[in-house]
Specification:
By secondary structure, the protein is mainly alpha-helical. The chain has one domain. It is built from 10 helices and no strands. Helix 2 packs antiparallel against helix 7 and helix 7 packs antiparallel against helix 8. The relative contact order is 0.11.
Length: 295
């Protein structure tokens, strides 16, 4: 019995030894396989993206191009009127003032788009994307709800900036009247045309060009806060009057913020419309309904 037990122990030991040897023989292969799998999964993991490249030249290129596009559009319209006048066609006598202003504004905005977008396409062979313009979606209830609140924010920022400028420059012309193109409105058609131009067409066109194209290009090239400030400065310069420039600079800062919050220009379009609508009332309606209110 002792001998059988001894033989059993030897057999068990031998089997364990064989099993151990087999394990030792196959382990390196298993390790290689595991290492291969681990390496494969590691290489398939998305590597951290490179640090975002800043294109500081965009701060000069795009603002200059937008200003150039707008000036060229104005020059083209002026030249057309001059040519018509030279040939004996006096446009100002043929077309009522309000209609002429509406037509001129519409043509200038369209030409600005054609020059700005078309010029970039000729150079880069790339079409301006809806994402750049902030037009990837339709207007939402959030846009509609934010716009009235943004009017309050814009008003506070504008008053604060104007007071700061007056504090630094006491002679600053705060009360200088803005030249909006339209003179006295004599009939219902004139009011409708002026309202359409100032409260509907201008806000949409200016938001597409400035908070859409210009800001959309700059925010992809430089820090957002710099893009917002530069866009707002250019927007102020385009308006041509110092007091108006400060006011629309404040407006533009809020408009850029709305684009960042909503991912679209629609809330900004509505804010711009509300702002111009209020101004339209005080300039043209208030003085008629309540004498002295409209200034």
């Amino acid at each position: 019995m002792s001998q059988n037990s001894s033989n059993s122990t030897k057999n068990s030991t031998k089997k364990h030894s064989d099993t151990t040897k087999a394990s030792v023989v196959h382990t390196p292969k298993h390790i290689k396989k595991l290492v291969s799998i681990a390496t494969k999964h590691r290489t398939e993991q998305p590597s951290p993206g490179p640090k975002k490249h800043r294109n500081w030249s965009a701060l000069l290129l795009y603002p200059a191009w937008v200003i150039t596009s707008f000036i060229l559009a104005v020059l083209i319209v002026s030249i057309v009127f001059q040519v018509l006048s030279f040939t004996g066609i006096d446009v100002e006598t043929l077309i009522p003032d309000a209609a002429l202003q509406t037509l001129s504004a519409a043509v200038i905005y369209v030409l600005s788009f054609v020059i700005a977008f078309g010029g970039q396409y000729l150079v880069t062979k790339k079409v301006i994307s809806l994402e750049t313009l902030g037009l990837t979606r339709l207007m939402t209830w959030m846009d509609i709800g934010l716009a009235p609140l943004a009017v309050i924010v814009y008003s506070l920022v504008s008053v604060a900036l104007l007071n700061l400028v007056v504090f630094v420059v006491p002679s600053f012309p705060v009360d200088q009247a803005q030249d909006i193109g339209f003179k006295a409105l004599n009939d219902q058609a004139s009011y409708i045309l002026a309202f359409t131009t100032l409260v509907v067409v201008a806000p949409i066109a200016e938001e597409v060009l400035f908070r859409g194209y210009l800001y959309g290009k700059l925010r992809g090239a430089v820090p957002i806060w710099i893009a917002a400030i530069v866009t707002s400065v250019i927007f102020g310069v385009i308006h041509g009057q110092w007091n108006v420039a400060v006011d629309v600079f404040a407006l533009s800062l809020v408009l850029c913020s709305l684009r960042e919050i909503t991912g679209s220009i629609w809330a900004g379009v509505l804010l711009h419309m509300l702002k111009n609508g209020i101004a339209f009332y005080f300039i043209f309606i208030g003085s008629v309904v309540t004498p002295g209110l409209g200034g």
